[in-house]
Amino acid sequence: MVNTSSGDATAGNILTGKKAWVDGSEVTGSLTCPSGPTGNAVVGDVLSGKTFSNSGGAGLTGTMTNQGATDYTPGISDQTITAGYYNGSGHVVGDADLSAGNIKAGTEIFSVTGTFPNDGTATTDDVKTDSTFYTNSAAKLTGTGTKTLSSANDTVSAGYYEATTLSAVDADLAAANIKKDVDIFGKVGTYEGTGGCDCSGGTPNGNRWCDNGDGTVTDLTTCLVWLQKADWGGSKKWEDCTNHDDAHTRAGILKAGSSGADLSDGSVVGDWRLPTKTELHNLANGTEAVRSGNMRAFTGVQSDDLYVWPVRSGN
Q1: pLDDT at 118 over 60
Q2: Please, which residues have CB within 8 angstroms of residue 247's CB and are 6 or more apart in sequence?
Q3: Could you say which of 114, 149, 211, 282 would form a disulfide bridge with 203 (CB–CB 3.0 to 4.6 Å)?
Q4: CA–CA dist 231, 259 (Å, integer)
């Protein structure tokens, strides 16, 4: 019998058959001690070096490996977590770049769902040549979209253009090729020709020649007007006093509408003549000379200088 006048013990705290006074009252115990060790833990469940008892015996020593403070860094493949005891000081290494804004929209990585846009629609032809970009795939793409202007036509295709000048596109866009004081794309012309002639009503062929579109060609360095069909007059003698079918006569009868001349310049009989020796020499020599191998704006140029090739003064 334990006699106490105070305390908080209950029957379950007192051995069966024993009585005690607790806070002035007698309490009969109901605590029963086991007849031997209990429990189902095995040595692998208990930290290495620690002892314990189970239903099979007492004084057993645990064999569980002490992993201590182990850190794990996430990667692209699974990592095995070794069985054992962890002391709570380890952690999974974080990465500040693992954020929604850095992950493709709709993709989840370690419970973080990406918001980075992946709905691009650009094609390689939309992007400057040799510049790289990404759209809605993981593949890096290289642009092919740079365009170039051409002097062969007036087409300007949609796309990116490198900085350039129209003169670089066509070297003929130069002041020397433009009528004096005429402004074409910022190029103010300085070309005056000789004697006041120009090609404003015709089609330039190089810098010297002007195809007038009426069967004549003007030499802009002399203002002489030549028959475009150089072989029209045929091969004639310089003078034929018997039949009067010589080079002078042939040139003198030429007029607009003459058979085979394709001439529509409004000229009349007497406007045309044979060129002088100097005029013919200038035609075949100097800048943009006319030869049978390079006829410029003419047709039918012969290597035989006995052919009749009429000329007249410009308007």
Answers
A1: yes
A2: 233, 236, 237, 238, 239, 274, 306, 308
A3: 211
A4: 13
